[in-house]
Amino acid sequence: MTGDQLFSAGLYHARRGDFQRAEQYLNAARQSGYDEASAVFWLVRVCIAGGRYHSALRHAAAYLQKQPDDWALRLVVASIHEALGDLDRARSDLEAIVDAQPRLALAHYRLGMLYRDQRSATDLARHHLGEYLRLSPAGPHGFEATAALDALSRTEPVDEWMSLSTDGDRAEPGDAP
User: Fold this and answer.
1) Mean pLDDT in each 10-residue stretch from start to end of the chain (177 residues)?
2) Number of domains comprising the chain
3) What is the span of the domain harbouring residue 145?
4) Residue 149 belongs to a domain with what CATH number?
5) N or C: which terminal CB in the chain sees fewer CB atoms within 10 Å?
6) 55-81 pLDDT per residue, tens
């Protein structure tokens, strides 16, 4: 089979929901010289659809070694790390993306949402969510970014309620200092 035929067979199996078979054909298409960017796009997509996140990361990593500036794929990789619970790796990947591509709004949004869940990083969350809204004011995540910023503005800094009481015990929220 030619690379084109292998690629078509991969898409056929993907449409049928046979993601493992689709991965096999798409990988074979890639190895036989089919356009690597297209093959990797679909490989990562079918691996994610089939819940094969580690396989998706493996395919992406091999491609990113040759094409390190594929920021869209790097964003997908960061999202996979987040889905797998590797938040430090996701955060590191997203930071690298916004450092290299500061105008990539979606990376700011994802990073802001990661930081939102850390009490000690609310300033970073505000910064990245604000950047998202500045870069993409009518973007698809505008409502969520605005709501997250509103919620962050209503939370008290940890230092205000974690002060020590006069008898040496930690004060609880709402206790008089």
Assistant:
1) 95 96 96 95 96 96 94 95 94 96 96 89 94 95 95 66 42 42
2) 2
3) 87-158
4) 1.25.40
5) C
6) 999 999 999 999 999 999 999 999 999
